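In this section we walk through a basic example: taking a raw amino acid sequence and producing a predicted 3D structure, encoded as discrete structure tokens. The instruction is simple. Fold the sequence below.
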Amino acid sequence: MVTTNAGPATTLPDTGAAGRGRLSPQARGMVALLVTVAIWAAFALSARALSASSLLPADAALLRFGVPVLVLAPALWRRRRRIMAVRPATAAKIVCGAGVPFFLAAMYGGSLTSAAFVGSIVPGMVPLFVSALMVAGGRGAPRGTQAAGLALIAAGVVALVWRYVVPLNTHVLAGAGILLVASGLWALYTVGLKEVDLDPVGSIGLLCLPSFAIIALLVLTGVLPTGLASAAGSDIALFLVVQGLGVGLCAGLLYAFAIRRLGAERSSVFGSLSPVAVVLLAVPLLDESPTLTVLIGVPLITAGVVLANRRSRPGSAPSPLPSSLPTSTPTPRVP
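The resulting token sequence is shown next.
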């Protein structure tokens, strides 16, 4: 299990009203988890909202990876030797799986589809891709409830895209395909995280330092266009908070805290509600109306993720699937 480098919470005597009003460790973990789910939902919403903003994908990527590097610079400097000691193959999995390729795929796929697609397909399909990687690496195929969960996920994705097959809508189907690529990349990132021995801050640095360097190089050489200098201040502030501070920094640290307080299984199960949160928030924020296929597909994917990450019973084979939710920090392997 990978743990954070934060010390244990200080326990003070429980006296009077102040003691009675103090949250328990489990309650603090639940609050952290709820905030994390809200941040994950905001990521999906921002992927859809980017096409209507004054920012370009490269601008959003600069904020996503640059803000954590700036905020955590002193802490990352202290961890530089451990970060540089990570094997190149493992670092490549993490940087490709959750860095610039993943980010641009998620943003572009979201611009062609809807927030519900981003919030469901990207995290939802990760268990299937992770399972395929495990089988390809010689691990056994999932069985029992995990196999049933993977089948539900596949059925949910089919339900989401079916209405765009007949009649054919190449625009949305192309976006769904790009989101599947993003999900496959995140599965690579998930597998890569199992191979590193870094705390959450170090893991954020391992992802964001090279990713920021890559996106900055692509912008400076003109490979990717940028409109950051002329973008609206409100758009910059929104993506700075949601992508840079929220997704890039807070989600990983809060999810690690929630796992320590609630355990990996409970955290992954509650975290799987993020697709539902995306659908509900997209109605007032993006004026999206859930279609019948969304109302069918999202619950199927959510139930599938819950089953795919379900803890094995005593005496059964260990689960081959790590937690599939979009964190920026290593999560304990679910036994």
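Looking at the output, two observations stand out. The mean pLDDT is 82. The two ends are 11 Å apart (CA to CA). In the next section we compare this with other chains.
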